[in-house]
Design goal:
Order of helices and strands: EEEHHHHHEEEEEEHEHEHEEEHE
Helix content: 25-40%
Structural class: alpha+beta
Mean pLDDT: 80
Largest sheet: 10 strands, mixed
Number of strands: 15
Radius of gyration: 20 Å
Strand order of the largest sheet: 13-12-9-8-5-4-3-2-1-15
Low-confidence stretches: 268-333
C-alpha cells in the first residue's frame, strides 16, 4: 500500500495517508509541507519495527526504544505506569506531534496543526487562536495558553475503551500527553460490575490488541441519572488528579446528556458544536482516530509506490527518497 500526499480541494490543507494513518495538516507557510511529507514517509515503518515493544505495558523504569515517535509515546505514558498502560495509548498523538515538529523545523510559522483522526498537535504564536468543537460549543485555545495538544477518547470510538464515557476531551501540553490522558480518563468513567455494561476480552475481538485479555466495553444499556453521575464522578477524580499533577490542562467528560469539567479556564462559545463548525473555518472536528490501541500494522513493514513529484521551486524538497505517491499539486505559499 502506497503512502499518499495530496492538497485538499480548499487549497490550504495537506492530506497524508498511509494504511491506518490519516493526517490533515495545515500551516500558514506551505513551504513547510515538504518537510511534513518527508517525515511522514517513514512513520509506519518506524512504528512497525518496534511494535512488539510498544505493545508492552510501560514499567516504572521505562522502555528502551529507538525511534523518535516511539520515544514520544513512551514519555507520554510513563507518568501513568501504575495504570497498566502501553505506549500504544499515545500513538496517534505522538505521530501528530512528530509531524508538527517537522513543520516547525522547516519554516517560520505562526499557526499550524496536525490532526490525526481527532488527536491534534497544535502550534500557535502569540495572538493566534484555534477553535475546536466540543459538546458544549467551541473551545478557543490562544497562543498564550500552554495547550498544544488535544485528544478525545470514549467507548463509542474506533479504539477499545475499558470505560463507558461517550467522550472525554483533553487539552494538554502535547498531543501525545493528551492522547494518553484521554484514554485513561475515559477508562475511569465506569460502573464496575454493572449488568448494564457489556464487556468482552479485547483479544477475542482483536487477537493482536495490546489490551490482551482485559475486558473492553462493547455495549451499554440505558442508564439512570444516578448511574451516569456516579460513572462521571469516577472519571472526574482521575482527571482532576492529572490536572493537579500538571499532566493535563483541562478535560471535559461526557456521558448521556451530562458533562463534567476539570478546569473553568476553558473558553466556551456557549453555542452548540454544529453551529461552531459553520461559524469558523478554523474549527476542527474529526472522528476519533482508528490508529489507537487496537491498531493493526502491516507486518511486512513499510511499502510505497509511485512516481516522485517535482516542485517548480524546490525539486528535491518534494521528492521522497522511497518514491512516496503524491497526488495533486503541492505548491509553496
Amino acid at each position: 500500500m502506497a503512502a499518499i500526499a495530496s492538497i485538499l480541494p480548499d487549497g490550504k490543507r495537506l492530506h497524508l495517508n498511509h494504511g491506518p494513518i490519516d493526517l490533515i495538516v495545515e500551516a500558514d507557510n506551505h513551504r513547510a509541507y515538504a518537510a511534513a511529507i518527508r517525515r511522514f514517509e517513514t512513520v509506519l515503518q518506524e512504528l512497525v519495527a518496534e511494535l512488539s515493544t510498544l505493545r508492552t505495558e510501560i514499567p516504572r523504569h521505562g522502555l528502551t526504544l529507538q525511534g523518535a515517535i516511539a520515544k514520544r509515546m513512551a514519555r507520554a505514558v510513563q507518568p501513568h505506569w501504575r495504570s497498566r498502560i502501553t505506549p500504544m495509548a499515545a500513538v496517534a498523538g505522538a505521530v501528530a506531534d512528530e509531524v508538527l515538529a517537522a513543520l516547525l523545523n522547516a519554516a517560520p510559522l505562526r499557526r499550524a496543526y496536525v490532526n490525526n483522526g481527532g488527536d491534534i498537535a497544535l502550534h500557535l504564536a502569540d495572538g493566534e487562536t484555534f477553535t475546536i468543537a466540543s459538546p458544549t460549543g467551541a473551545i478557543v485555545i490562544r497562543g498564550e495558553d500552554d495547550v498544544r495538544g488535544i485528544a478525545t477518547s470514549g467507548w463509542r470510538g474506533r479504539s477499545f475503551s475499558l470505560g463507558i464515557a461517550d467522550s472525554v476531551t483533553v487539552l494538554a501540553r502535547t498531543a501525545s500527553m493528551a492522547d494518553a490522558a484521554a484514554t485513561l480518563i475515559a477508562n475511569a468513567v465506569d460502573l464496575p460490575g454493572s449488568p448494564k455494561v457489556k464487556r468482552q476480552s479485547a483479544c477475542d475481538i482483536a487477537p493482536d490488541s495490546d489490551l490482551r485479555e482485559r475486558l473492553v466495553t462493547v455495549a451499554v444499556d440505558e442508564l439512570t441519572d444516578g448511574e451516569i453521575e456516579a460513572a462521571l464522578r469516577r472519571g472526574l477524580v482521575v482527571a482532576e488528579e492529572m490536572t493537579r499533577e500538571g499532566l493535563v490542562d483541562s478535560a471535559s467528560l461526557m456521558l448521556g446528556a451530562k458533562l463534567k469539567f476539570t478546569n473553568p479556564k476553558i473558553r466556551h462559545s456557549g453555542r452548540g458544536p454544529a453551529a461552531a463548525l459553520h461559524r469558523s473555518a478554523r474549527t476542527v472536528r474529526e472522528p476519533e482516530s482508528s490508529f489507537g490501541t487496537t491498531q493493526r500494522f502491516p507486518e511486512a513493514g513499510f511499502r510505497v509506490a509511485g512516481k516522485p513529484v517535482a516542485d517548480a521551486t524546490d525539486d528535491a524538497a518534494l521528492r521522497p527518497s522511497h518514491g512516496m505517491t503524491v497526488a495533486g499539486n503541492i505548491t509553496h505559499a
